Amino acid sequence: MSLIEVKDLSVNIGKKKILKHINLNIEEGTVTALVGPSGSGKTTLLRTLNLLQIPTAGSLKVGTTTAIAGKIDTKTIHDLRQNSAMVFQQFNLFKNLTALENVANPLIYTNLANKKEAHKTALKILKKIGLEEVITQYPATLSGGQQQRVSIARAVAVRPRVILFDEPTSALDPELVESVLQTIAGLAKENITMILVTHEMDFARQIADEAVFIENGEVLSKGPAKELLSGRTSPRIDSFINSLKRSAFA
Amino acid sequence: MNFDWQYFLKALIQLPEYIPVTLIMAIFAMILAIVIGVIITVFQLSPFWILRRFAHFYISFFRGMPTLVQLFLIYYGLPQLFPSLRGIPAIIAAIVGLGFKESSYLSEIFRAGFNSVDEGQIEAGKALNISKITLFWHIVLPQATLNALPATGNTFVSLLKETSLAFTLGLTELFGEGKMLAGESFKYFETYLAVGILYWILIIIYTWLQSLLEKELLKPYRRDLNEPDRSEGPVS
Ligand SMILES: Nc1ncnc2c1ncn2[C@@H]1O[C@H](COP(=O)(O)OP(=O)(O)O)[C@@H](O)[C@H]1O
Ligand SMILES: [Mg+2]
């Protein structure tokens, strides 16, 4: 049984059909790259996997929790979110908490650990990704790359079964991208299940097992990442990848 | 020019006796304004339209009327409708009137404070399964309070000055006493200048205190102060 099963999932916002009949299975321990043009629905799909966006039709299973459109109550939302964590494009760290507290406090707030355990866990994770020196600093005093790594640590700390990354390096200055990618690659080595929305094609080819290409709210194709992201399997994907290269050199 | 320096200095020394009344009025009115302001803000942000409507009406009503009219309504008007209110001390009427008035400004300031906490942090909290109440107390409220602090301070400054209107209710505070001195001595310029300077000094002191508080509270969020000091490398 797959860790994540998405069946015939559709999302409308207002009258607009944002996602149309998505089907997707994701296995435990794999990395899935979610790629596609801007506005194709990648963020909406990730948000729906976390029920930050409520689906209009279809169903969604993460771990042992199933959410069926039309029958989603607060308990379903709570249970489902226990299985996942999210890393946002804009980091979204809690601005009034230090780096350490950003990682530790969610564990305390959700009764996953007491203060002492939470701080211990947080410190361990932050050390591992080389942020030991900034643990007492507030987000405003950290670089974008450091902020994003703290937010990755925050996601790891709750021990989710899957981490959802929404363009984690898009808001970063080019010289800060590498450190964040390295942190993510480190997680991939530990076989943490991840879904990664990214425009970093080289990186995606390196670490992803599977790739999913979406356009206009539909899954256009999916398959092994190295093959799919080589662009050789489909002219449409090929032209998309080329357009990314062009914009990178622009 | 005939400016009576001696009289001016005398007034400057004599008038501060009335500063406590002015301060007490301002401080209690501010406390009242904060309490009501918070309640109105909660109404404004509530999911119930009837509460939002009420908040809107309240704000519009108390902002739309001259302060003096409100004070007269409370002190002279209300006892006519409710005889049990006859004989309420003028200072209470002034505190209530000014508190109601300023609460309408504060609730707008507080609301802006809440809205300035970005939606992204709330989304992150939700995604982490943090309950709404916890998120509010630990994340939103501390940031909203900090964001609202400067404007709240400005409201206190206006309030402090508006307490001078309380003389119209027969209360002898800083301005009221000045008016009496001026009436007796006919030295209007000297007296009112002394009164004005005393308000000014009060406000300078308050503004200074507030800037100290703000600096202290904002310290952790400021980049320049937290940049690790690289001038002295560790001895190795
Ligand atoms: N809250 C919303 N209200 C209306 N339209 C939205 C909303 N969120 C996303 N959309 C629309 O849904 C489409 C997909 O958006 P998104 O999921 O953000 O795409 P991507 O992440 O692939 O760039 C876009 O056309 C966007 O305008
Ligand atoms: Mg997006």
Automatic annotation (TrEMBL), chain B:
Keywords: Amino-acid transport, Cell membrane, Membrane, Transmembrane, Transmembrane helix, Transport. It is a multi-pass membrane protein. Coiled coil: none annotated. The keyword Cytoplasm does not apply. Gene3D superfamilies: MetI-like. InterPro entries: AA_ABC_transptr_permease_3TM (IPR010065), ArtM/GltK/GlnP/TcyL/YhdX-like (IPR043429), MetI-like (IPR000515), MetI-like_sf (IPR035906). Residues 19-210 form the ABC transmembrane type-1 domain. The keyword Nuclease does not apply. It is found in: Cell membrane. GO terms for molecular function: L-cystine transmembrane transporter activity. GO terms for cellular component: ATP-binding cassette (ABC) transporter complex. The chain crosses the membrane at residues 20-43, 55-75, 189-209. Signal peptide: none annotated. Belongs to the binding-protein-dependent transport system permease family. This is ABC transporter, permease protein. It comes from Liquorilactobacillus sucicola DSM 21376 = JCM 15457.
